[in-house]
Amino acid sequence: MYGKAFAPEYRGSLGELSVNTSLEEVLAKAKEEQLRAQQGGGDLELAHAGLAVAEACRRLGRVDEAERAWKDSYRAARRAQDRGAMAWAVWSGGTLARQCGHLALARRWLAAAAELAEQGGDIVARGYSLAGLAETGRIQGDYEAVGRLHEKLLAEARRRGEARHTVWALEGIAQMHRNTGSLDSALALFEEAAQIAGDAGDDRGRAWALRGMADVRSAQGDAEQALALLTTAESLCRAIQLVSALAYNHKMRGNVLYRAGRYAEAATVYGGALEEFRAMGEPRGEALARLGLVKSQARLGRSAALTAADLDALERALGDIGLLRAGDMIAKARAELGVTTAVAAAR
């Protein structure tokens, strides 16, 4: 039903690269192509090479390089008057904006990418851009607005037998089910995504699906199974050098340990994930790791006043990113830890 996973963001002469090619190898080959195009190739080849550089740098957490590369790719694509290539470059920029916590900017870039893709007749770029919009809305917590789009994109991906996009859509829908308490349906969707990704040779998609399965298993009380799933996912992340996915894997390991009452271990793991997110400039991951660390430290005896101040700061940080459910998330943490706001605590 599904073909092997492929990476349409690796274009032109780089199209032979696999979705599982290590990112350092992608970066090296893309820079070789970039140099070749600068010395005598055309603008379209330069656009393709710049896109691959941008995506490799983004996934490696080198956000400044990624920012320069996608803009260079866009300028080259515009000179070549290729709207499909322009769409891919802007998609990369929108994805980078989301990774850096600029969610409103991400939505603007991704909407522009979808429009360019439609004008250029690039159905895959359009699908990726709409998927990016759906994921951005899901991260913000706007489930009602993007739930239907996730389902539509899933149906399109299934119809085309496109494994990688099917896996992405399943994982997004599963995450919404997880976040709204439908654990059994979330687990089934994550398991289907992991199966399709495994069969299609999509290690990246499988790593994210295993992380989702671990989250649900942990919420159902099976910490050891959850940790085993995360260990498998971690090995996949390391093999491809998925820096961001690895940091989120570690943050989830902290969640599993925290739920199991292993607070000292959780604090250590959250602290490591926090440094990973800071190193790559990913504020959403940083804020979530900080939240886990604050909760773990509170369980280990940190004062209620300091915990309250930390939670207040985190509520502002998460709100600044644009997460619609930030208030609910922090209110839940306050109730769980038996603390109030820092202002109320000082009265």
From TrEMBL:
Question: Origin, by domain of life?
Answer: Bacteria
For this protein, the record's InterPro entries field holds: TPR-like_helical_dom_sf
A Pfam family annotated for this chain is TPR_12
Protein name in UniProt: MalT-like TPR region domain-containing protein
**Native species:** Streptomyces hundungensis
